[in-house]
Write a structure and sequence with these properties.
heterodimer; A: mainly alpha; 7 helices; B: mainly alpha; 2 domains; two-stranded antiparallel ribbon; 2 strands; about 70% helix; globular; disordered C terminus; DUF112_TM (chain B); transmembrane helix (chain B); Putative tricarboxylic transport membrane protein (chain B)
């Protein structure tokens, strides 16, 4: 392969395994959404076409369906790449981490930002295969640093943990405000 | 002059200086770690900056944006893995230089070229300001609508070889911004009866999912690795002398960076490739390119560092972001009720000058920081990738949840995270979704406000600037069709484009 790229080859990308699965998914979603156009949008009588609330959803979904159709066509006409279902399975596996993220978001208002962050940092480090104490300690310390940076210093808008209410008076106030 | 001074005054505050320092140094570190990148960092920090003054928040984000490419050159040169996607071509000549024992020369040249490109970009921005102040008010609703339409078109067409996917994703972005209660007619659009969809899909929730969470999922599902970069010995300022021998290449490359940075949808990649091709064609030793040519390295780094300043031009003057990072910054402006566009130059010119000075300061801060800390950065980039994934996941929570403490936002963001992962794995672009959302919103609003003045469709283009923009749209389309025909006639074989795996980093 020539190492010097010409402008013409700029941004070309070759397909990867699983491309056709995504193409089908995109087309089905586009067509389903487009089929709901009349139900999910309104047409104001007497209004100009471009000012209709239906206009932009129709343009975008119509465009999506057309582009998705061509993308699928391109995928279907190209040579089959091995490993399609392995790739799709990896996408499915990533849902586990989405689940971790949502669990973390559910836990924070109850267990408090500091304890939840430290626990999740260590648990996730264990989940992805780290066993060395150094990495696990680093994960816990990083969790504390994240909390100190965002909650204590930058005072970002995060809820105080309900569990903090059970703490003794002085400590409770500090934990509710800063951690 | 008065505005210039008040711009300087704006910057001369401890909180602004601190934000600039944190942004610049943080940006270099983030850029140096393959797997993070400025988009992830800006997405995470975005909601945190909402509580800050506009100039403080913007300088911090600007610091990250402008400095990440400096840091990204280090792993590109030392371990052949670009720290940010736009350092891809740096590794072409930087790594071969490292292999033949010239790591110090390559790194210091990359820094010098970046500094040159950065300052050149800001210089152009300052010189162009008076012109922008005159031209920007000529942009009414029709012109901004056409400019946004041109932006969408360019974003789609810039993804050569993947135009259908880019078109699909841009349209998806436009669709996403239509979801919710229509602000003019108060009618529901695609809410399916769910109240949480009535307020629409928040751009930041989407950005955090597509950029930050998807990167976390990507790193967590991929095999663990720990890049090993060897320390560099020698004075980092040595590159300046060598750069002066190649000032023509550095200046032309920076020029490409400025011009292409201003055009929405093109940006660093195109600038880099055009500069690299130019440098090779005009070099006395073209055969050295790809084997450790200093000119190639300079062309690549000068071009990509000239872009951030240039990308501020359409953002500040017209309120039109050209790529994902400026699209994210646009939300900071909106949160503070500072609307970028023609009126910004009339009402908030001091803020504009403040941002210019911030850009200059950040380049100096980064350069000084890099002169002393390169070896420290080579240690930082050894962080294992899955550990990084854990950290990005935890940090993403701050970004999403702090917006409005909504669990629904977290779920939507996680959904976009999975979509982002799929797109990254397929090497499909994410940027069209974000630009579709932002530019789609602009197009809808501006077309509506232009309607009362339109009696016939030709009224849309009856003013000089709108007519020029219309011609540009036609020209872009015609050029694309011409290229397609030429390519089809030439029957060009497919090349290996794995090096364009820009979404991976």
């Amino acid at each position: 392969m020539s190492r010097v790229k010409t402008l013409q080859s700029l941004f070309k990308r070759y397909r990867r395994p699983g491309d056709i699965a995504f193409a089908w998914f995109a087309l089905i979603v586009s067509v389903l959404l487009l089929s709901q156009l009349a139900d999910q949008t309104t047409w104001k009588n007497g209004g100009k076409l471009f000012a209709q609330p239906r206009f932009w959803p129709a343009v975008s979904l119509g465009g999506m369906a057309v582009f998705a159709g061509f993308h699928l066509l391109g995928s279907a006409l190209s040579e089959r790449i091995a490993g399609r279902w392995q790739e799709v399975w990896l996408w499915v596996c990533s849902l586990e981490y989405a689940g971790w993220f949502i669990l973390y978001a559910i836990a924070v208002p109850y267990a408090g930002y500091l304890p939840t962050t430290v626990v999740f940092a260590v648990l996730l480090a264990l989940r992805v295969g780290y066993r060395r104490p150094f990495i696990l300690i680093a994960a816990a310390v990083s969790g504390v640093v994240i909390v100190l940076l965002f909650k204590t210093l930058l005072k970002v808008n995060l809820p105080a943990g309900m569990v903090y209410e059970a703490l003794p008076d002085g400590l409770r106030q500090i934990m509710l405000t800063y951690f | 002059m008065e505005n210039l001074l008040s711009g300087l005054e704006m910057l001369a505050r401890w909180d602004v200086m601190l934000a600039l320092l944190v942004g610049s140094v943080g940006g270099v570190i983030i850029g140096a770690i393959p797997g993070v990148g400025p988009a992830v960092a800006i997405a995470i920090l975005l909601p945190a900056t909402f509580s800050l003054d506009p100039i403080v928040g913007l300088t911090m984000l600007l610091g990250i944006y402008g400095s990440s490419m400096y840091g990204g050159a280090i792993p590109a040169v030392l371990i052949n893995t670009p720290g940010t996607a736009v350092n891809a071509l740096t590794s072409y000549d930087g790594y071969p230089m490292t292999q033949r024992g010239e790591a110090h020369r390559a790194v210091s040249l990359a820094y010098s070229a970046s500094f040159w490109g950065g300052l050149f970009g800001i210089g152009c921005l300052i010189i162009l300001s008076p012109v922008l102040a005159i031209v920007a008010p000529m942009f009414g609703s029709r012109e901004i609508f056409l400019a946004a339409l041109l932006g969408i078109l360019l974003v789609i067409l810039a993804h050569r070889g993947q135009i259908f996917a880019a078109g699909l994703l841009a349209m998806f972005g436009i669709f996403l911004q239509t979801v919710g209660l229509d602000a003019v007619t108060y009618s529901q659009r695609y809410t399916f009866g769910y109240s949480f969809l009535s307020s629409g899909i928040n751009l930041i929730v989407v950005v955090l999912g597509l950029f930050a969470l998807s990167q976390a999922f990507f790193l967590l599902t991929a095999p663990d690795s720990s890049p090993d970069a060897k320390p560099v010995k020698g004075k980092m300022s040595a590159g300046f002398k060598e750069l002066l021998k190649h000032k023509r290449v550095a200046t032309v490359a920076s020029g490409f960076g400025v011009i292409l940075g201003m055009i929405p949808g093109t940006g660093e990649f195109t600038a880099q490739f055009m500069s690299y091709t130019y440098a090779q064609k005009t070099s006395k030793t073209p055969e050295e390119f790809g084997k450790g040519s200093p000119e190639g390295l300079i062309a690549s780094e000068a071009a990509n560092n000239a872009v951030p300043a240039a990308a501020m031009i359409p953002l500040l003057a017209l309120g039109i972001p050209g790529e994902a990072l400026t699209a994210m910054m646009l939300s900071v402006f909106y949160v503070h009720n500072v609307i970028p566009g023609p009126q910004l130059f009339q009402n908030n010119i001091d803020l504009v000058y403040g941002l210019y000075f911030a850009l200059i300061a950040l380049n100096v801060i980064v350069m000084v920081f890099l002169l002393f800390s390169t070896n420290l950065l080579t240690k930082i980039i050894r962080v294992p990738t899955r550990f990084l994934g854990v950290m990005i996941l935890l940090l993403s929570f701050v970004g999403v949840y702090s917006l409005r403490n909504s669990l629904t936002d977290c779920m939507i963001s996680a959904g976009f995270g999975v979509l982002g992962l799929i797109l990254k794995r397929l090497n499909l672009p994410i940027v069209p979704i974000i630009l579709g959302m932002v530019l789609g919103g602009i197009m809808e609003v501006k077309l509506r406000s232009a309607l009362p003045r339109l009696k016939t469709p030709f009224d849309m283009i009856d003013r000089p600037i709108s007519f020029i923009l219309f011609l540009l749209i036609l020209l872009v389309l015609a050029l694309h069709i011409r290229t397609l025909v030429k390519e089809w006639r030439a029957h060009q074989p497919e090349e290996d484009h794995d090096m364009h795996d820009s979404q991976m980093r």
